[in-house]
UniProtKB/TrEMBL annotation, chain A:
SMART domains: AAA. Residues 352-598 form the ABC transporter domain. It comes from Cellulomonas humilata. Residues 32-315 form the ABC transmembrane type-1 domain. It is a multi-pass membrane protein. Keywords: ATP-binding, Membrane, Nucleotide-binding, Transmembrane, Transmembrane helix. It holds the Pfam family ABC_tran. The chain crosses the membrane at residues 27-48, 68-89, 143-164, 170-190, 258-278. It is found in: Cell membrane. GO terms for molecular function: ATP binding. This is ATP-binding cassette subfamily B protein. The lineage of its organism: Bacteria, Bacillati, Actinomycetota, Actinomycetes, Micrococcales.
TrEMBL record, chain B:
Residues 1-20 are annotated as: Disordered. The keyword Cytoplasm does not apply. InterPro entries: AAA+_ATPase, ABC1_TM_dom, ABC1_TM_sf, ABC_transporter-like_ATP-bd, ABC_transporter-like_CS, P-loop_NTPase, Type_1_exporter. Residues 364-598 form the ABC transporter domain. Pfam families: ABC_membrane (PF00664), ABC_tran (PF00005). It comes from Cellulomonas humilata. This is ATP-binding cassette subfamily B protein. Residues 45-330 form the ABC transmembrane type-1 domain. GO terms for molecular function: ATP binding.
Length: 621, 607
């Protein structure tokens, strides 16, 4: 299942995690300070055994001083209270940065995704993006708040602790140090294995999210064909794969937890033997022996924690990799370095000129994994829309009409040639200016969870009475008067979280939305396909009146939609093979005649009425 | 035609905070957790045994140290090396055993937790598939996705390490306490007294975080809903320059989410600090009590050391337990949401005693049918209709007249309020769902393609179909040439939401799907609206073969499609107002005749 393009070559964990600086920078002082307090807290914890050593050697074993014992206990109490205070400080210091870093990374990714061209979204499945912006960022947050700090603190505690142990008794300290070597070695081995599995687990989780998303968005199809069980099988298989990976991950982790739990204890066992022997020979005081074990007890818990922290770090690395993979994707559709302004609009309308336009979808991996270059969908389009003209674009399904339309607002960029509005290449305009001048009604009307009014006003910045008038007019032209009769009128929430409308209703709202922009160039992608003939005729009539001064390109599949247009362009094999009036093309252009009537060139053209009658005759049982 | 929003029942609890309601919700989510645990109970107990073993091995340490200092040291000084050898060997054995058992615990607990997660994922997925369209239309896809991703993740975090952490933590505390009491009951008493404020603190933490984590789950779901909607509609967002507004809304939601997780983390900080404080005070107290008694010779120094080591150990796991509590609260909140989703009953339930429909003929009846969406107004007040097997029907009427509603009832996407829809005399509600779906197929305007190959997408109509059958279906609807010209033919990836296929091509693919499914009753709801004229003509030709001995109900705005049917029903305000052959209706003069005249005019105008 293709879900996301393959990952980039592996980078070192440190280098990847260091790239988080970009978001963590404002928080760094607090994180550093938090780290310091955490360090202070563990050093305090390490100080307790030293106090213990003094008490055992002094007041307890040699002096027998009650005051000494009480004083010692008071010092331990003070150290303990201070440690608790420092723990609180660490929490308080790191709290804000941890969550703001996550929020900033999340909004940055969102902003970046909004900026990435449609071509990117075509390639990436929703689940992979969703798992990145939710669960991967959560992992990163937990690591920055807890993992990173604790990793540094634990490592320092271990180092300082070993130092103290060496100071207490160099023999025993050495024993501990020697034991640490295999732990470090195992830790590194573990890192390599774990990294691979951690990334695989995350990618599989992303694929699973994609399957979930599809099963929800495609629910009507699954229900209509009763394929819920098959979808479940598919999902269960994927979920089971994820489970296998996770269990495998745990196996890798179990090796390191064996080492990190058995080795420190084994060291203590050996130390016990050595220590008792040394003490019996008088080479070590009882207090020092006690202090050694108390220190080892303090050090052992961060050692055991290291395994978990290491795993957490590697998980965070995998998550960061996945996050950066998207953030590093540059936008192919960019604003120009110095944007040109569109010339002031001519009341008669804008001139739109496509010259030598080629378009191919970018290379993508095919089923067998090999890269294929996309073949040209548009192979040299030359077309001029005169100011104020309404032109219909006619061609067989899949001939590239929708693609051509989307080149104008730069939802895709041409691979060769140029699209010009009033003489300015659309790539020289800022996208904001361009998309303010150009408006589009998609064939598949995309409405958002917002009120009817907000949906219609989506492309405008008007408010107040002007906005109300605009909505009223746009709804009127699109014959979307039904909107007033919805439960809350124009304030009714539609879209996914609101009232579900029929296909025809959605199409008319989307049309109203495109009109409301009052664009210089209007692009309509078969905007009336879901309307019945009567409604279509009414909309067509109003549209024609309203479109004076707006240059319009309308994709048409039916003669009735062509009725909107002054001229028609025929798209065939990636080129424009004819431009002219409907009636002329019908008699002179065989392909046009075929597309609109399904009659081959050999049939007598006759009148359109007859042609339609013939068509009926042909399809009648 | 439009389905009014039924109130989002399952989420309503978010706003309610009555104690009784809260308890009920909690019971339900714990019930879910229990039922997930049941199948893995054996393995879970096994894991628990491993944890006990590992903790027993760990708890031996300080006791051996005490033995070493108090017994083996004097013995060695007297020249007897036996005790210290024994102590060292025993400690080594405990270390090894502890390591092995800990490693085994990690593996075993992963197996248990991953098995539970698989079970949960499957249950939720299956259940959402079972739930009726009515539910899907009101719950929104983003929320369902959020349940199946981020909420399951929350439980994963709990199970991943949390449960073993808790078990080993609690056990470590119990064993440590027991060991200390055995070693020196007075020190043990000090430790046990310290448990009291610990429990009070934990209880406070539990109460405070429960509400907080619910808020956090809701905030997460809102983020996901907004994200999914924006990414699904990215074309419109970009084309209409809505990026700034969308960003702002998302930024606010991200800030809400940040705020709620910050509050949880803050509560955790207090908990963590409190535990450290209690622990450290206890260590000082044990030292004081023990030290004073050691002065009188009440206990030996080794025992005192062991007591200090034990009391320090005792509070070590508390931090981890705090972390566990963290993920536990978050998981409970997630489980509550999941449990409430699982508690949703399909409004179109499977029959209890399904009737088989072996050889369906395709005879359809609407008997006194009344219908409305949810609790909304009546959409179809009274429909009586008989469609003999093999007849092709066209439904005609204004947008919103109820045509799609009739189609949805026929496909049993919804159930009638009164009366019955029958296929071959059987109430749809009684027919075995597998048989029903084989007999009745509905193709809608939105031609959804799943990721995977084009061939696989067609095969959705009949999973066991051979490549030849798939190709035959594609040929029948005239999409074969198009697919054959693609880079990998039928193996070409359909890509995300099939965007690289035009709307018309997608409709052809979904039509091939229906063709392959070969149902006895085919419902086409605007299924050909995006086709061009030649495409539709091809489909029509294909339809003739398919519809020859099958029942069909077609909703189309193009009269060219309608005129080819046996019988036309004109629907107005949910009632059938005209019924007859297309030519008879045109001749009779009436609404259909008017429509036909309009159509004729529209054709003439284009010439």
């Amino acid at each position: 299942m293709p879900s996301a393009p393959p990952a980039s070559p592996p980078e070192s964990t440190t280098r990847v995690l260091l790239r988080l600086r970009r978001w963590a920078r404002p928080a760094l002082p607090r994180i550093a300070l938090g780290g310091l307090t955490a360090l202070g807290a563990s050093l305090l914890a390490l100080a307790v055994p030293q106090v213990l050593r003094v008490i055992v050697n002094g007041p307890l074993l040699s002096e027998g001083s009650q005051r000494g014992v009480i004083l010692g206990a008071a010092v331990v109490l003070a150290l303990g209270v201070l440690e608790a205070f420092l723990v609180w400080c660490r929490r308080a210091l790191i709290l804000t940065p941890g969550t703001t870093v996550e929020r900033d990374m999340r909004t940055d990714l969102f902003r970046h995704l909004l900026d990435l061209p449609v071509e990117f979204h075509d390639r990436w499945s929703g689940g992979q993006l969703l798992s990145r912006i939710m669960s991967d960022l959560g992992t990163i947050r937990r690591w920055t708040v807890f993992g990173l700090v604790m990793l540094l603190v634990s490592a320092t505690t271990v180092v300082v602790g070993i130092g103290l142990m060496l100071a207490t008794s160099w023999v025993l300290g050495l024993v501990y140090l020697v034991g640490a070597v295999p732990m470090i070695w195992l830790g590194f081995r573990f890192r390599e294995d774990y990294k691979v599995v951690a990334r695989r687990a995350r990618d599989q989780a992303g694929d699973l999210a994609t399957t979930v998303e599809e099963s929800v968005h495609g629910i009507r199809v699954l229900k209509a064909f009763g394929r819920g069980a098959d979808a479940l099988d598919d999902f269960a298989r994927q979920a089971d794969e994820l489970r296998t990976t996770e269990v495998h991950k745990a196996k890798t982790q179990s090796r390191v937890s064996f080492a990190l739990s058995a080795i420190p204890e084994a060291i203590l066992a050996v130390s016990l033997g050595f220590g008792v022997v040394l003490t019996s020979r008088g080479e070590l005081s009882v207090g020092a022996l006690v202090a050694f074990f108390a220190t080892a007890a303090v050090v052992n818990s961060p050692v055991e924690r290291l395994g978990m922290l290491l795993a957490m770090t590697l998980d965070a690395k995998a998550a960061t990799d996945r996050y950066l993979q998207v953030m590093d994707t540059g936008s192919a559709v960019r604003d120009p370095a110095e944007a040109v302004a569109l010339p002031v609009a001519d009341p008669a309308g804008s001139r739109v000129e496509l010259s030598g336009v080629h378009f191919a979808h970018p290379r993508s991996a095919s089923a067998d994994g090999e890269l294929r270059g996309g073949s040209d969908i548009l192979a040299g389009i030359d077309l001029v829309l005169e100011p104020g003209e309404t032109m219909a674009l006619v061609g067989l399904t899949g001939s590239g009409k929708t693609t051509l339309l989307q080149l104008v607002p730069r939802l895709y960029d041409v691979t060769a040639g140029s699209v010009r509005i009033d003489g300015v290449d659309v790539r020289d305009l800022s996208r904001a200016d361009l998309r303010a001048a150009v408006s589009i009604a998609f064939e598949d009307p995309i409405l958002f969870s917002a009120s009817v009014r907000e949906n219609v006003l989506l492309g405008t910045d008007l408010s107040g009475q002007a906005a109300d008038d605009l909505v009223a007019e746009a709804l009127d032209v699109a014959r979307a008067g039904f909107a007033y009769g919805l439960p809350d009128g124009l304030d009714t929430i539609i879209g996914e979280e609101g009232l579900s409308l029929s296909g025809g209703q959605r199409q008319r709202i989307a049309l109203a939305r495109a009109i409301a922009v009052r664009p210089r160039v209007l692009l309509l992608d078969d905007p009336l396909s879901a309307l019945d003939v009567t409604t279509e005729a009414a909309v067509t009539g109003r549209l024609r009146e309203m479109l004076t001064g707006t240059t319009t390109l309308v994709v048409a599949h039916r003669p009735s939609t062509v009725a909107l247009a002054d001229r028609v362009a025929v798209l065939e094999d990636g080129r424009i093979t004819g431009v002219g009036r409907h009636a002329d093309l019908l008699s002179t252009h065989p392909h046009y005649r075929y597309v609109l009537t399904a009659l081959s060139a050999l049939d007598d053209p006759g009148g359109a009425d007859d042609a339609q009658a013939d068509e009926l005759a042909e399809v009648r049982p | 035609m439009s389905a009014p929003v039924t109130s989002a029942t399952s989420e309503s609890f978010e706003e309610q905070s009555t104690a009784a309601e809260s308890r009920r919700i909690r019971r339900r989510s714990l019930g879910l957790l229990r039922s997930l645990l049941r199948p893995v109970a054996g393995a879970a107990w096994g894991t628990a045994a491993l944890v006990v073993g590992a903790q027993l091995a760990a708890v031996a340490g300080p006791a051996l140290v005490a033995y070493g200092i108090d017994q083996a040291l004097p013995a060695l000084t007297d020249g007897d090396a036996g005790p210290i050898t024994l102590a060292t060997a025993a400690y080594l054995a405990a270390a090894l055993l502890g390591g092995v058992l800990t490693a085994a615990t990690v593996r075993a607990s992963a197996r248990v937790s991953q098995t539970m997660l698989l079970d949960l994922r499957r249950r939720v997925f299956r259940h959402t598939q079972r739930l009726s369209l009515e539910f899907h239309e009101s719950y929104t896809s983003g929320r369902i996705i959020s349940r199946q991703t981020s909420d399951v993740d929350a439980l994963r975090e709990l199970l991943d390490g949390g449960v073993t952490t808790l078990a080993s933590g609690v056990l470590a505390m119990v064993f440590t306490a027991v060991s200390l009491v055995l070693l020196d009951w007075r020190s043990g008493l000090v430790l046990l007294i310290a448990v009291v404020p610990g429990v009070i603190l934990t209880r406070w933490f539990q109460v405070r975080t429960q509400v907080q984590y619910r808020k956090q789950r809701t905030a997460a779901a809102r983020l996901i809903v907004r994200f999914v909607e924006t990414m699904t509609g990215i074309r419109a967002v970009q084309a209409f320059r809505r990026e700034p507004q969308v960003r702002e809304v998302y930024g606010d939601l991200a800030e809400d989410y940040r705020g709620s997780s910050a509050t949880s983390i803050r509560l955790n900080g207090v908990f963590d600090t409190g535990l450290t404080l209690i622990g450290n005070v206890t260590v000082a107290a044990v030292l004081l009590v023990g030290g004073l008694r050691a002065l009188d010779g009440g206990i030996e120094v080794g025992v005192l050391v062991a007591a200090v080591l034990y009391s320090r150990r005792f509070f070590n796991p508390l931090q981890q337990i705090g972390m566990f509590y963290n993920s536990f609260q978050s998981a409970t909140a997630a489980l509550e949401k999941l449990a409430s989703l699982l508690a949703e009953e399909p409004t179109v339930p499977d029959p209890e005693r399904p009737k088989r429909l072996a050889e369906a003929r395709g005879d359809v009846r609407f008997d006194d049918v009344e219908f409305g969406y949810g609790t909304g107004p009546t959409v179809l007040p009274h429909v009586d209709l008989h469609i003999p097997a093999g007849q092709s029907i066209a439904l005609v009427g204004e947008t919103g007249a109820g045509k799609s509603t009739i189609a949805k009832l026929l496909a049993r996407f919804y159930d009638v309020r009164a009366g019955a829809v029958r296929l071959d005399g059987l109430d749809l509600r009684e027919i075995d769902p597998v048989d029903l779906r084989r007999a009745v197929v509905m193709v809608t305007q939105e031609a959804y393609l799943f990721s995977g190959s084009i061939g696989a997408n067609i095969a959705l109509g009949k999973p066991e179909a051979t490549p030849q059958e798939i190709e035959a279906a594609a040929r029948a609807v005239g999409v074969h040439d198009l697919i054959a010209a693609m880079p990998d033919g039928y193996d070409t990836e359909a890509d995300k939401r099939g965007v690289r296929l035009s709307a018309g091509q997608r409709q052809l693919v979904s039509f091939a799907r229906a063709f392959l499914a070969d149902p006895v009753l085919l419902i086409l709801d605007e299924a050909t609206s995006s086709l061009d004229v030649p495409g539709e003509a091809l489909v029509q030709v294909g339809l003739q073969t398919l519809l020859a001995d099958r029942t069909s109900v077609v909703i189309a705005h193009r009269l060219s499609t309608v005129m080819g049917s046996d019988r036309v029903l004109v629907i107005e305000d949910g009632r059938i107002v005209e019924d007859g052959s297309p030519f008879a209706l045109v001749a009779a003069g009436g609404r259909f005749a008017d429509l036909h005249a309009d159509w004729q005019r529209s054709l003439r105008r284009t010439t």
